[in-house]
Specification:
By secondary structure, the protein is α+β, with helices and mostly antiparallel strands. Helices cover 63% and strands 13% of the residues. The protein contains six helices and three strands. It has helices at residues 2-30, 38-65, 69-96, 103-131, 137-148, 182-199, and strands at 155-164, 167-176, 203-211. Strands 1-2-3 form a three-stranded mixed beta sheet. Helix 1 packs parallel to helix 3, helix 1 (2-30) runs antiparallel to helix 4 (103-131) and helix 2 runs antiparallel to helix 3. The chain is elongated and about 85 Å long. The relative contact order is 0.12.
């Protein structure tokens, strides 16, 4: 979960940078200044784009090998920087050909909007990791759809999901024919878990089998949590 803290820290740095850029942009609109060396500035920005592109490719490779929220947040940031820097080059080009001076600070305000949006997304992912939140409803519906695809599962209840670090905890009780052989029931549940893992590779699944209609047990102590989901 340290990665969640790192993501939050990075989002605060991006947010702070965006606020400072916004203040400077407003000041430059009222007292505009031209870039004194647009060719040098454009060359450095172009170099930055190339280096950022290489870095993003390395980060993509790393994420394919092992998911990391810190790398994902950084990659999200640098991917956006590539497009923003392309916009900066266009702005510098316009100034080089005597374009309006106010174009630079106005474009900077659009950069601020992007930075704040990026900070919000990164902070949200960091908080989700730190707070062990429930999966979003659309993700839960995917699990429910898999459960409902099994005719041999009569019903299910107590579906609980939780984001914990990079992993997803999935706990569910399924109701099955009480006369079914244990091995048959085990094979069905194993296939169910395999299907969920295909959709959520980082999932850790605990499935409890109940006879149809027998949903009372000592594992549930939280009021209102023991409800049928289908």
């Amino acid at each position: 979960k340290v990665e969640g803290l790192v993501a939050l820290g990075q989002s605060m740095v991006i947010f702070g940078g965006g606020i400072m850029l916004f203040i400077e942009s407003i000041r430059r609109i009222s007292t505009p200044k031209t870039v004194e060396e647009p060719i040098i500035a454009g060359t450095l920005i172009a170099l930055s784009i190339v280096l950022s592109f290489i870095l993003v490719k390395v980060q993509n490779y790393s994420l394919e090998k092992k998911h990391s929220l810190a790398i994902e947040a950084d990659q999200y940031h640098y991917s956006g920087d590539i497009f923003l820097n392309l916009g900066v080059i266009l702005t510098l080009t316009a100034q080089y050909f005597n374009g309006p001076v106010w174009l630079d600070p106005v474009f900077a305000i659009f950069v601020v909007i992007y930075l704040l949006f990026t900070a919000k997304n990164i902070a949200g992912k960091g908080l989700n990791m730190l707070l062990d939140r429930e999966l979003p409803e659309n993700e839960r519906k995917k699990i429910i759809s898999i459960l409902e695809s099994y005719d041999s599962i009569h019903s299910f209840h107590d579906l609980r999901t939780r984001l914990t670090g990079h992993k997803i905890d999935v706990v569910v009780d399924v109701e099955m024919d009480p006369d079914m052989k244990l091995k048959d029931a085990h094979d069905i549940v194993k296939a169910l878990e395999d299907d969920i893992i295909k959709e959520f590779p980082n999932a850790e699944i605990v499935t409890h089998m109940d006879p149809i209609g027998d949903t009372d047990d000592s594992r549930h102590h939280v009021e209102e949590i023991h409800k049928k989901a289908h």
